[in-house]
Amino acid sequence: MNSAQAIMFLKNNQPFSRDTEAKFEVIKKYNDVRVHFLNHPDPQCIPLFLNSFGEGSGFGVYQLIEDVLMKFSVEQVLPHLITALKSEHTGVRYWCSHIAASFPNPSLLAPLTHLLRDPDPDIRCAAVTALSQIEDDRIIGVLTGVLEKEEDPDVIDLIQEALNESKIEAAIP
């Protein structure tokens, strides 16, 4: 496999459909593409990987895409990550909100804050985690404001944990 073939594969799978047994062979090829770009980084793959996530775990491969993205600078990844966080596809929003925690940057504040209103509580949890990694004083206000409206007990617990951690860090000189 070369980079052109790998890019074409990703372009043809934007995003993947829900995990099914029938998709297992395609996901195996997706993993081969991941390994290719791990060994031969090409910035063309960044938006393609970020928009490839279907619903499910990709048979364990989706978690590994972050390793490829870590080969690139924050400046290369952020514009594509910001766009992907606004995707209409649940799988893309979910996995990109997880990836956002590894690229903590104030420019992610707006799209992650928007995800705090996502109907999927798992996406809201991932957004809280990603926001808690960003060093910006506005995070405490954002999390405090959403805490008042949140109804899911897991999300509430995560927000409270993030707020407690933020207050401890703010107290350390």
TrEMBL record:
It comes from the Bacteria. It holds the Pfam family HEAT_2. InterPro entries: ARM-like, ARM-type_fold. This is HEAT repeat domain-containing protein.
